[in-house]
Amino acid sequence: MPPSFAAVRERYLGDLVANQWYDVRTFGKKQRAALSPPAYLVELIRHTQVTAVEMHSHTPRSDGLIEPQRIAAWTNALYKKGYFRHGHLAVPLVVVVTDHDYIYSCDELQAVSDDSGLTLLSAAEVSTAHGHVLYYGSQDEVISSCDLRQPQLTVQPDGPAFLRQVAGLEGGVAVPAHPYRETSMLRELPGDEVAPLLGTVEILNGKTPADQNLSAIEYARKHGLRGTGGSDAHQISRLYSYLTLFDGPIRTLNDLVLGLRQGDFFPVHGEHLRFKES
Ligand SMILES: [Zn+2]
Ligand SMILES: [Zn+2]
Fold first, then answer.
1. Each residue of 91-135: pLDDT tens digit?
2. What residues have a C-beta under 5 A from ligand 2, the ion?
3. Is the pLDDT of residue 207 over 90?
4. Which ligand is nearest to the CA of 230?
5. In a domain? residue 182
6. Fewest C-beta atoms under 10 Å: which of 140, 179, 209, 238?
């Protein structure tokens, strides 16, 4: 019997803490070479249709250097090294662009997807008055009230009010980013009061010190919340350092939002999706 997605998630989250995979120092060349995917994760991927999603990345529309048009070439180079596909193993890949206070039009990223064959989806990292919140959705009310159609750094919605706004509308999910980093949500606000407004927090962030990722993991566990992982890459070489593995296919923003709402996902270290020995 192949392992269930939920069983693998619980086992992986346990191993994540025991092995300190939440520590961004594991991205060093030597440390990466020492990591290999756990056998039970490979079993899951072999028998279940999953999708690996890079949930957090930045382009020049905010403060990043990643041109969306270059992501596919970079990804192809990783395929050759045995990341995401090797032999009979293949994990479909999605990249979500989450610029600060800016959301690409779906059409613009769709055009890049069509050219490259890699699925790119548009979302945003909203600067609330209480820290950064990843917004996955395309609701007009959110986009216009936060003025996300043009690059800017002025609108600062109240944090809890933003979480309530997104929760109150159908078809979007708000996820506090790197919640324990300085000027982030769970440093700014009492965690016990924020928890009822949340379904998910970002528990693995590729730019966040280990102790702060660990605090987010412990917070999610304490409050029964799900956790995502994302690289927070501003340079293309940091893309895919952390990803989120979803149960089932993710091809559109609606699929992603539905997957987030259903909770069928868990964060993974990018090195655990490298199937070829290096
Ligand atoms: Zn941020
Ligand atoms: Zn970010």
1. 999 999 999 999 999 899 999 998 888 999 999 999 999 999 999
2. 125, 232
3. yes
4. 2
5. yes
6. 140
Kindly state whether residue 16 falls inside one of the protein's structural domains: yes
Determine the distance separating the centroid of ligand 1 and the alpha carbon of 130, expressed in angstroms.
11
From CA 59, how far away is CA 38, in angstroms rounded? Answer: 32
Q: How many domains does one find in the chain?
A: 1
Q: How far apart are CA 66 and CA 70, in angstroms?
A: 7
**Ligand number nearest to the C-alpha of 131:** 1
Ligand 1 midpoint to CA 258 (Å): 23
- Name the residue range of residue 191's domain: 5-273
Q: What is the CATH number of the domain that holds 59?
A: 3.20.20.140
Q: Report the chain's C-alpha Rg in angstroms.
A: 17
Q: Are 81 and 32 in contact (CB under 8 A)?
A: no
pLDDT tens digits, one per residue of 238-270: 999 999 999 999 999 999 999 999 999 999 999
Average pLDDT over all residues of the chain: 95
Going from the Cα of 232 to the center of ligand 2, the distance in angstroms, rounded, reads: 5
Residue 236 has φ and ψ, to the nearest 5°, of -65, -30
40 alpha carbon – ligand 2 mean position (Å): 31
Categorise residue 77: left if φ over 0, alpha if ψ from -120 to 50, beta otherwise: alpha
Per-residue confidence (pLDDT) for residue 173, from 0 to 100: 98
**205, β-bridge pairs:** 230
Place 2 in a pLDDT band, splitting at 50, 70 and 90: confident
Q: Is residue 207 part of a domain?
A: yes
Q: Is the pLDDT score of 153 beyond 70?
A: no
Ligand 2 centroid, distance to 55 Cα (angstroms): 10
Residues around the ion ligand 1 (C-beta < 5 A): 132, 177
**Any domain includes 132:** yes
